[in-house]
Every structure is written in structure tokens, then in C-alpha cells.
Amino acid sequence: xxxxxxxxxxxTLGVAVAIxxxxxxxxxxxxxxxxxxxxxxFWPLFTPSLIAGERPRSTARPENAVAARIHREEERLVAALxxxxxxxxxVLSPEVRRVRSLFRGLxxxxxxxxxxxxxxxxxxYSGDPPRKAAEKLAILRDRTKDQIDxxxxxxxxxxxxxxxxRFANSPDDEIVxxxxxxxxxxxxxxxxxxxx
Length: 196
Hints:
mainly alpha; 80% helix; 0% strand
């Protein structure tokens, strides 16, 4: 392959990585354009994180207590998955991407919850007597919060089960059965969250 063909291949792959980065990036304004340009030019450096499905870590403080709890539980679950060794690690390693997807959904729900709470705090919806629209918005807010709470409680249970698997002196076939049950639990959580 000559220099021209190599340059065309490099540019084509750079465009593909830049497009994928554009769809997954949370950056705005000039930062977004800089990220896209860097993804195009240095696509070999961006590709591993895109394949792993990892989102960039923000150093900013979470917006509210619910968002902070979501991020804390995500870190606990990923740490518990990462701490597994042997057969359990082999079976659950593909689940990290699904876990990241689950928590992206929870992040979106957290933003929705904050927006509902802010809207309900405005004079248009906090008057006395409550308007019908305000009551419906309050019901939506409560459902969203309940769903987040239920999902996070299930995540806490998964973390506990992962710790039990890690320290149990069980035969490999028992560990594989338990881990597959956990993988199904993670898949069920992700599908349930996306379905609602």
C-alpha cells in the first residue's frame, strides 16, 4: 500500500471516529469542535475509549443529590465488577458496557427529575390550589424518582452479590451459575430502564 492509499485509509477512519465521537460527546461549543478535530486527526488514540464505551469523567460536582447517588452507585458497581477474578471475571467482563448504558439512562432520568422539580417550583405550578397540570407533573416527578430509587436499590443488591461471589469459596460451576444470574439481572435492569 502506497502513501496515498494509507493517507486515504487514515482519513476515512478519522472521519468515522469523529462522527462516532460527535454522537457520544457531551462537549459543547468550541470544545466540541476541538474534540471532533482531535478525534479525526488522532483517531488511534480515541478508538480504545470508544470501543470500551466509557464516557468521559467530569470533574464537575453532580448537580443534585440524586445525580451524586447515581454516580456513587455506578462507581461501586464498576469497582465490584473489576475486582472479580478468574471465571467470574471472564463471564462478567462484557457486562461493563451494559452497566455504562444503564447509568447513562439513570443520568438522563436524573436530569429529567431535576427539570420537573424546577418546573414545579415555578409560580405557574406552585400556586394554591394546585392546577391539574401541576398534579400531573408531580405524578411524573414521583414516578421518575421511584424508578431511580428502585433501580439503585437493585444495583446495591447486585454489588452485594458480586462481593459474595468474590469471597465465596465455591466451585467454578457454582460461581458461573451465580455470575450468569447476575449478568441476567444487569441485562434486566438495563432493559427495564430503557423500556419505561
